[in-house]
Amino acid sequence: MNAPHAPKVAGIDPSLPSPTQTADPVTPPLAAPNSGVQDRLAGWVSDLTTLHELTERLVRTDSLDEALRELLRAGASLVGARRGLVALEPADGLGPVITVGLGLGHADLGQIETIPRGSASAGHLLDGLPEAGGERRADVAHPDIASEADLDPRHREVAARLGFSASYAVPLDPFRATPRTTPGLSAIPAPAPGVDGSGTGTGSPADAGDHPASGVPGVPGSGPTSVPGTTSVADAPPVPRPVPSTDHGRDTAPAAAPSSGLTAAMGADGPSGRLGAAAWLYDEPAEPAGRQRHLVGLYCQYAAAHIARLIELSRARAAVATVQEELLPTRLPRVPGVRLAVRHHPGPRGGGDWYDALPLPDGALGLSVGGVSGAGPSAVVAMGRLRASLRAYAVMEGEDPVAVLSDLELLLRLTEPARSATALFAYCEPGTRKVVLAGAGHCPPLLTGERRTEFVETTLSAPLGMLSCWEAPSVEVTPSSGETLLFYSDGLLHRTGEPMDRAFARLHTAAASAPKGVRGDPDAFADHVLRTVLPDGPAASAGRPSEDGTEDLVLLVAHFD
């Protein structure tokens, strides 16, 4: 039986064979990169991330003590140590000289300071640099203190007493020679191969492997490796290699030329040269590997630049505070019938608040407090000029406080047209306990005793320099025997951190609640007020400026016998 024929359709010839299905050519898979290259690339990325995180935490510190403690914590994590110390001793000799410990108490730091500086790792860096030939120590390692015969016996004794067996120290020098002399985190060049005899990298800063300088030796087809967005190691500038020495792992490296960008960031007047040294202590005999040394060296260079800026800032603040203190009275006058005490805590930037007490003719006493607008050196200088002028006006016409402040306002308007100021002046006659006051926008004084505590209204006036013609009424008060008059600046109220009405109420309560034994001593009364009014009262009463307060604090106490 014959098979049926397919029907004929126009345009189709069924006799032609069906086309065969052909598969697309399959491209063989690319050969996977060598695992060693991937490991090293991962190690570089991990190191870059670690340094970025640590430096981010460092730059968020805004005080020298915080920066030094963060340096110790970060360095301990990089070298695998548990304790450490940093000795800050700028080479220019201008200070500050500070020693901060990690996991070490004050007694421990005292014992370490008894080690001869030439033997201690940090002290060796501070005293032994630069060395002959202009070379600088890159680091100092004592991998096994007990077995090093050339160490000072005191060094081994202190190490045994404190329980550390090894130490590693690096200098704090913004211009220190490191495997990368240009500040930045754009790339992590590798240390010299073969430093620790290991050619592997695991991606952790605490591991012992080193990164290859270019490619992977002995792996066919491996070449220079780069991370997208970073500088290729093969294109990096030549790296100064440490010169090995025979002095217990201490390496020397040629001094690096100061980076112009780093110099500009630090300022021309900032601290130059070595700032100090940081040392980390191991509980067991140990020594950081080459890769760890490389990472901690980079980090310490960045940390040294940040610390140098903080040192420059602290020096500037100290200079402003010194000028401000010198412009104020060094001691208060002694006038029969009245006893005085003062507390002055400048703000961190230096402000324009002042106080004054000067003896006047006929046994009278002039008391004044005030402040100019603004902060910083210019405000301090303007404050000094106003205070000196007020003293002159008070000597000539002190019995009329309104005239004194009127003359001061005219002087301010002519010589400091861009500034305003508040002021309060009191003319006191201790014999009759008569006080005449006038204020120019300043906080009202507080009169307190066993039977009353009330504010003296002197705020019916504008600050100096705010109006074309200033005038204000004077107020006369007569304190009773044993009562106290408090003059203060608005910084005392602002440092409470509360609204002004609650701050005034807090001051009123502090004065009214003073114990009877405190009221007769103006110094004790001033300390009581600060302890009660301020949140950080103990720090303020001890004479330490509050870091949280941005304004000056002035408290002048006059106790009438």
UniProtKB/TrEMBL annotation:
UniProt entry tagged with the keyword Glycoprotein: no
Keyword Zinc-finger on entry: no
One Pfam family of this chain: SpoIIE
Region annotation (Disordered) ranges: 1-33, 180-269
PPM-type phosphatase domain mapped to chain residues: 337-560
Bilayer-spanning residue ranges: none
Stated name of the protein: PPM-type phosphatase domain-containing protein
Comp. bias regions, Low complexity: 214-233
Keywords: Hydrolase
Taxonomy, superkingdom: Bacteria
